[in-house]
Design brief:
This protein is of the alpha+beta class. The protein has 2 domains: about 120 residues, no CATH class; about 90 residues, Alpha-Beta Plaits (2-Layer Sandwich). The protein contains 6 helices and 11 strands. β10 and β11 form a beta hairpin. The radius of gyration is 17 Å and the shape is globular. The protein starts with a strand and ends with a strand.
């Protein structure tokens, strides 16, 4: 099985519409296992906006190499929940990897409604890579809710000159700019020699587009 996940970045933002700031990184290797450490520059920036260190990892200077996945894994859905089948289908989770916490964090982003942390994967540029992510920047654009529908094909344009992210990837529907591929998830667009196919996976509407999840497949 080809490796698809390089690292997972822990990001934080002030709330909906806030810019995501990478504050930590989770690495996995054969010698050390799974390791978590904070990104000091990101932590310093985030603290100015009210950021508090992740519970269970109280020392910004420490490299954590024990119980990392046990702590972060509490954010994941339990297999015994009746809605777990829908959850795994939504995020395109491989059935044989439903107990792989590192993989699940990367693929589902570890989202919970009670905080503003997200776990965003930096993917290897392998053929056949596929993942679900979300369009960022929608709240600023206030795009009419009927612009896109589930199944629509989107176009991507790299924006390396973007002042916020040198790996920025803008998304368009018939010439209408919708927003961007999420931070970190966008890096593989710059590294892959394969063509990304991007389709609208799921939509939340409230007069305007509230959330748009997309399916990305590198063919």
């Amino acid at each position: 099985m080809k490796k698809t996940i390089k690292n997972i970045y822990l990001t934080w933002r002030t709330g909906s519409g806030g810019r995501r700031i990478p504050v930590g990184r989770i690495k996995k290797n054969s010698s050390q296992g799974v390791v978590f450490s904070y990104l000091k520059k990101g932590v310093e920036e985030a603290k100015k906006k009210g950021f508090l260190l992740f519970e269970g990892f109280p020392d910004v200077n420490k490299v954590y190499n024990s119980n990392v996945l046990d702590i972060f894994g509490h954010r994941l859905i339990k297999n015994e929940r009746i809605d777990s089948k829908y959850f795994y289908e939504f995020w395109m989770i491989q059935p044989e990897r439903r107990n792989d916490t590192f993989y699940l964090l990367a693929m589902t982003q570890g989202l919970v409604p009670t905080d503003n942390f997200e776990f965003l994967a930096d993917f290897y540029p392998v053929k056949g890579l596929k993942f679900i992510t979300e369009i960022s920047g929608l709240s600023q654009a206030e795009i009419a809710s009927d612009i896109v529908a589930e199944g629509d094909l989107l176009q991507s344009i790299n924006e390396p000159e973007n002042q916020y992210d040198k790996y920025a990837v803008a998304l368009y529907k018939d010439g209408q700019k919708l927003g961007y591929v999420k931070l970190i998830n966008s890096r593989v667009f710059y590294l892959s020699k394969y063509t990304p196919q991007i389709t609208v996976h799921s939509i939340e509407r409230n007069g305007t587009l509230k959330k748009v999840f997309i399916k990305v497949i590198f063919q």
